[in-house]
Each structure stands twice: as structure tokens, then as C-alpha cells.
Amino acid sequence: MSYYFAIIGAQDNPLFEYEFGTSKAGGDGQSRFSEQSRHLNQFILHSSLDIVEEVQWTSGQLYLRVIDRFFNNYISCFQTGSAVKFLLLHQPPSTTTAINSSSSTTLAPSASALSTSSSSTRSSTSIAANPTSPQTEEAIKNFFTEVYENYVKAVMSPFYKANMEIRSPVFRSRVAAAGRKYL
Which of 7, 11, 140, 156 could disulfide-link to 15, CB 3.0 to 4.6 Å? Predict the structure, then answer.
């Protein structure tokens, strides 16, 4: 599974961006976004900000779970008390992508094709195989929690100004470590 993580400030400005792949189940930690989708990731995340603003008022939680889906990309959100948003775009591995894209190329896919793609996606409990499973939700929540703790430490620095881009290599390495640990 490939991930694109961004921290969006209270004024909807990007504060931090990081792209990585799964390290679980034999993954090498490298993202598998195509070159074209790599350019679209920022736009996909920013387009989901309207949905975040709608969902934040219906849920009293900081972790808003999967809030949006764009083709085969899922967007999860964690919002801080200061209206800073942590957005994670996650894309299932290419085997699931190939199944879903083959069934969506026809105008009216057969029922057997739909049942095959949905059963192969939902039958596995692997984090990489099913982006909406409870195990995946828990892993993403733990990732967001650890990154939030590191974010608080970074913004408490006397050299940090509110809504300033986070350029700390220590913070980047801690986000990478949290990604390896949970995702």
C-alpha cells in the first residue's frame, strides 16, 4: 500500500508532506504511486478539506476515519484542537487496483465480476489488502496519534511560528518511523 501524508494548517496551507510505502508484510517502504498520480495527490487531499469541515461538526472525535474516496484512493483524517488537519491518502496495492480497474472499465460489469472484486478486497484482514478494515483503521489511528505527539513537540519549539512549514529532519524521521511501525 502506498501512502501520502500531509499536515494542513488552520488556514488550509500545507505544513508538511511525506510519501512512503508499507513496511508490513514484506513491503520495502517505497511508495508505489504512478508518476501521474504522484502529481495528483496534493489535489486529492486538498479537495477533501471541504468534507473534513462537514464531518468535523457531526463527530466529536479528533480521528475522523476514512472521510473520502477518490477512485482507488482513500483519505483518512485526524484533526487537532487548533484546526490543523492530518490527512493520509492511502492506496491499496496494485493487485487490488488491477481487479477494480478491470471491473470498472466496462459500463455495466457483470455481477460475478463485482462479487469477485469485493470478496477479494474484503476477505483479507491484511492492512494492505483492505483499506477500510478495523485493523487498518486502528493502525492509521495509532499512526496519527504518534505523529500528533511528535507534532506537538515540534510546534512547542521556540523557533517555530504558527502555520509555518515544518522543515525539521528529526520530525520527518519520526514520521517515517511511525509509518514503518504502524503502516
Answer: 7
